[in-house]
TrEMBL record:
It comes from the Bacteria. SUPFAM superfamilies: alpha/beta-Hydrolases. This is Thioesterase. Keywords: Hydrolase. SMART domains: PKS_TE (SM00824). Coiled coil: none annotated. Signal peptide: none annotated. It comes from Streptomyces capoamus. Belongs to the thioesterase family. One of its GO terms (molecular function) is hydrolase activity.
Length: 265
């Protein structure tokens, strides 16, 4: 069991790491707007014993509440690239949900441009293609309107609505994240050589199926689009279906097996 952090890793960027005895790959997961590394808590006991889970904690929330969130998605991706440099010592897969999907794509682009260790695959879920405009502006809405939007679009776990004080804190983070995502429209993409797999929820009104097809312009090589049950929050609502989809896309790495004892940090 590996319970110690490599000295080259930035501890602040990864929270709740699940280590395994002999990892073949590292699964680096970037959360949706308003969320933190804890979004992937339900994934911990579902992964094969050869995969290390490395959930990303973005600045401006949770354990990093005092760290300033950059003002643009491009700048945040640059910080993420530096912060995760020590995490690329194993073969790895990048997974991003919504805002995290845009960041995963941008990070892969930077790594390809700069000759860094590129992912085995980049997987984006419930995210529009980066060269497509946002479907609307919601980050400037009042609290009541924003809460109704979140509930209607399944954009936050339902149980969070039972804790109004905590929810107010989340709204502050969420507004800043949404501003980044809504203002980000990339230039026409240089297609990625890295395999690109896109997941969408069949009932997602935020990123409908028609929008997901535009991701094909971002891929120079292997590309897949998979539709799964659920709305915008399907990666948290139904992690089993997401991991099944990853298993079909990367069968050599996501084979089910007996899960040994793991450690988290």
């Amino acid at each position: 069991m590996n319970s110690g952090a490599s000295p080259t890793r930035s501890a602040s960027w990864i929270l709740g790491r699940v280590t395994v005895t002999r990892p073949r790959i590292r699964l680096i997961c970037i959360p949706q707007a308003g969320a933190g590394a804890g979004s992937f808590r339900a994934w911990r006991d579902r992964l094969p014993s050869t995969i290390e889970l490395a959930p990303v904690e973005l600045p401006g929330r949770g354990t990093r509440a005092d760290d300033a969130l950059p003002k643009t998605l491009e700048e945040l991706a640059e910080h993420l690239s530096s912060g995760l440099a020590g995490e690329l010592d194993l073969p790895y897969v990048l997974f991003g949900h919504s805002l995290g999907g845009l960041l995963a794509h941008r990070l892969t682009t930077l790594l390809e441009e700069r000759g860094g260790p590129v992912p085995l695959a980049t997987v984006v879920a419930a995210a529009r293609a980066p060269h497509r405009p946002s479907g609307g502006v919601i980050h400037t809405a009042g609290d009541g309107e924003l809460l109704r939007w979140l509930a209607r679009h399944d954009a936050l776990p339902r149980e969070m609505f039972e804790y109004p004080d905590f929810l107010r804190q989340v709204l502050s983070v969420l507004r800043r994240d949404l501003a980044l995502a809504e203002s980000y429209v990339a230039a026409p993409p240089v297609p990625l050589r890295t395999p690109l797999h896109v997941l969408g929820g069949v009932e997602d009104p935020v990123v409908p199926t028609a929008e997901l097809h535009h991701w094909s312009a971002c891929a120079a090589g292997e590309f897949s689009l998979t539709l799964l049950p659920g709305s915008h929050g399907f990666p948290q609502r139904d992690p089993a279906s997401v991991l099944d989809a990853l298993g079909r896309a990367l069968p050599e790495y996501f084979r089910p097996d007996e899960h040994p004892t793991t450690s988290t940090r």
